[in-house]
Amino acid sequence: MKKIVLIICFLIGGFLLSNAKPKMVFECGKLYDWGTVRLKDSPLKAEIKIYNQGEDTLEIKKVKPMCGCTTAPLSKRILSPGDSAVLKVTLNIEQYEGVVAKRINFTTNETESEKYLEIKANVYQPIKLFPSRYLNFSRMFLNTESITKLVINNISSHDIKVTNLIVKPEILKLNLKVGDIIPKDSDFVLEAKVIPVELGQFNCRVELGFNDPDMPNVIISGWGKVDPESEKNVDYSKDTDTTATKEVQESKQGSPATVIPGSERLKLPKGTELKLEETPKLPVEPLVPDKEVKTETPENKVPVQSEPVQKIELGKPVEMLPPVEETKKDKKKK
Question: Looking at the domain assignment, is residue 167 inside a domain?
Answer without folding.
Answer: yes
